[in-house]
């Protein structure tokens, strides 16, 4: 009964996540999940949490997890904020740090949750077009702004921005917060965490959903100057004191500590990505340079919607974005296992060989 809705709710345009089909035997390459399971040590740590202690609230500050994140990145725990998925960390960031008089800047082609948070929190924003090659050009962000946010590598293009370019932006932009959403950084980019001690306006956001294969656990974190972290804590403690449950704190901390498993699985994804790119190029696809666990590819003769639908008939799910029109020719394909990518390639060979 929408007459009971607030004006705010009437005006919202919610984010639409990639589908999670409830069918078996799909080759699911649509939401950038990691094809390798979480660290066995993370699973063990979560199993150990099943017990009587669940009657008690978890640590509201998740100190054990903050310590693990801080150790992993060589920063202080006071420079770390943790939340229920990086989407929640992002949401608090929009409210705490990016809502100002001047507009927030982000690319015209990027993570589509950003405009949704602007709608929810009443943040004024302006989009900055990617270049012809679908790249971020930092000079385009050197204009009056209330904040800047983009993913590196960008989504859904997968294109990385060199750290020197981010530093050039930080040098030119001292008066508002610059947020780098590094959801995919572990698959090849250069992390801006290296710059947080030198730039108090820099906030770097990570997730355990992709490179640590814990999308189902919902854990993300931000690293930045303690003053920025304080702002996020003020919003969090005005919203939900316990965003991370006991399983999330234990499992995420163990995952951060299992460096060997993390390195091994990231390398496997990167190796499969380069094979996949090679095979797609042989089939006549143009693939944007990717430093992520997905690739963005278009075919000269077949549209993105058409190919996505034909793959779906063969139980292979990839992601297609109709808007903006500039990216409609592309498919975004998550890098799966070698076997999954082979299934995809043989299906594409069949589809491309069939006369229209
Ligand atoms: C997947 C993704 C996130 C969200 O990650 P969660 O931690 O699962 O909420 C944030 N930003 C970008 C660019 C992503 O692709």
Summarize the helices and strands and which ones pair or pack.
Layout: H1 7-10, E1 27-28, H2 40-47, H3 63-73, E2 80-83, H4 85-97, E3 104-107, H5 113-121, E4 125-128, E5 147-151, H6 163-172, E6 178-181, E7 202-207, E8 220-224, H7 226-236, H8 246-257, H9 259-282, E9 285-287, E10 294-299, H10 304-313, E11 316-317, E12 330-334, H11 338-353
Parallel strand pairs: 1-11, 3-4, 3-5, 5-6, 6-7
Antiparallel strand pairs: 2-8, 7-8, 9-10, 10-12
Helix pairs in contact: 2-8, 3-8, 4-5, 4-7, 9-11
The structure holds pyridoxal-5'-phosphate (PLP).
Q: How would you sum up this structure, described in words?
A:
By secondary structure, the chain is an alpha/beta fold. Helix content is about 35%, strand content about 15%. Strands 2-8-7-6-5-3-4 form a seven-stranded mixed beta sheet, with helices on both faces. Strands 9-10-12 form a three-stranded antiparallel beta sheet. A two-stranded parallel ribbon has the order 1-11. Helix 2 (about 40-45) runs antiparallel to helix 8 (about 245-255) and helix 4 crosses helix 5 (about 115-120). Pyridoxal-5'-phosphate binds near residues 111, 151 and 155. The site of pyridoxal-5'-phosphate has 12 residues, from helix 4.
């Amino acid at each position: 009964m929408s007459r009971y809705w607030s004006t705010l709710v009437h005006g919202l345009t919610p984010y639409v996540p990639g589908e999670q089909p409830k069918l078996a035997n799909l080759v699911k390459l649509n939401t950038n999940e990691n094809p390798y399971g979480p660290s066995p040590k993370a699973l063990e740590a979560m199993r150990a949490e099943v017990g009587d202690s669940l009657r008690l609230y978890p640590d509201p500050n998740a100190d054990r997890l903050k310590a693990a994140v801080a150790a992993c990145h060589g920063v202080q725990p006071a420079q770390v904020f943790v939340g229920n998925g990086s989407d929640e960390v992002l949401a608090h960031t929009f409210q705490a740090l990016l809502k100002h008089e001047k507009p927030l800047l982000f690319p015209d082609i990027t993570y589509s949750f950003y405009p949704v948070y602007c709608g929810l929190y009443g943040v004024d924003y302006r989009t900055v077009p990617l270049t012809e090659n679908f790249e971020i050009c930092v000079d385009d962000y050197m204009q009056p702004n209330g904040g800047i946010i983009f993913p590196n590598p960008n989504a859904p293009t997968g294109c990385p921005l060199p750290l020197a370019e981010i530093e050039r932006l930080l040098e030119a932009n001292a008066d508002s917060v610059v947020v780098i959403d590094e959801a995919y950084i572990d698959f090849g980019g250069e992390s801006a965490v290296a710059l947080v001690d030198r730039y108090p306006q820099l906030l770097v956001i990570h997730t355990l959903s992709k490179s640590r294969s814990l999308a189902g656990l919902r854990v993300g974190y931000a690293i930045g100057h303690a003053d920025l972290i304080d702002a996020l804590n003020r919003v969090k403690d005005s919203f939900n004191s316990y965003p991370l449950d006991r399983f999330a704190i234990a499992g995420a901390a163990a995952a951060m500590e299992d460096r060997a498993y993390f390195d091994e699985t990231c390398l496997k994804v990167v190796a499969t990505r380069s094979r996949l790119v090679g095979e797609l190029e042989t089939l006549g696809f143009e693939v944007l340079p990717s430093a992520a666990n997905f690739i963005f590819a278009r075919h000269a003769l077949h549209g993105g919607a058409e190919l996505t639908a034909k793959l779906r008939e063969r139980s292979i799910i990839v992601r297609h974005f109709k808007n903006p029109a500039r990216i409609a020719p592309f498919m975004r394909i998550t890098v799966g296992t070698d076997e999954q990518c082979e299934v995809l390639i043989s299906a594409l060979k069949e589809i491309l060989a069939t006369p229209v």
